[in-house]
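Question (not urgent): is this output format expected?
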Amino acid sequence: MPAFNEEKYIAKTIVGCRKYVDKVIVVDDGSTDATAEIAEALGAIVIKHPENRGYGGALKTIFESAREMKADAMVIIDSDGQHDSGEIPKLLESLNNGADLVIGSRFINGNGKNVPAYRKIGMKVLDSATNFAGGIHFSDTQSGFRAYGKKAIEKIRINDTDMSAGSEILMQIKDHDLKFKEVEIHCNYDVEDTSSQNPVSHGVKVLVQILRDVELRKPLYYFTVPGIILMVVGLVMGINFIENWRSGGELPLGPTLFMIIAIQVGMISIFCGFILHSISRLLDNSKFKWDVT
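Got this back:
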């Protein structure tokens, strides 16, 4: 479990988790309180970051540790008391039934009524962006309660350092041909001080990072589609200007310049999209050949 200044809730979470797992690993991400000391006193394996590396940095350490330990399965759960450790068996059961990655979802089977409205709206925006970028479909891409099988542990690599790392992981599902499943979980939002970040700024940062991933993974959508729209707008404006000019009218300077710029930028965006798409396919094919060999 990643932990940053969670001395209020870390003990309850560790005690609850120990009933269902062989080892509890706590990544103390630069905490300034007694999080690490409490975790060590309860028998957890504590890995300390000398400074705060962010949620993604903590996840990266967790995956690296699991690989070093040659773990067959791993459950990641938030240390702030929001998740019910008693639901861990649900996730492990799905792993045992063949899934490589299991998401604890707050929004399936009519669940999620206790989620604050402002959180739900933000989550749905991030869900849509993540699902689009990864070509997947999850009802709760931002859930921090997950289980990973051996294949997922070995294959997944994390580069993002912030909360967008959760989305980054899901975008790798198709890359590594991972089998996935969602199971219903419940979340407690009555816990105080569960986040060190403003939810709005946090959501914007995650969305921006996801859009950057879309730029790399789906350049046709990121560049070509907007380019086509710009070009069409410019051409329609040009046709109207020509018809007006033939009727004896004058060409307006401002709109004419905008038309020219729209067509040029549109053409450049279209070509960039196709070129980047070709490069992306070449890299994917090279990666596949490398993996095979």
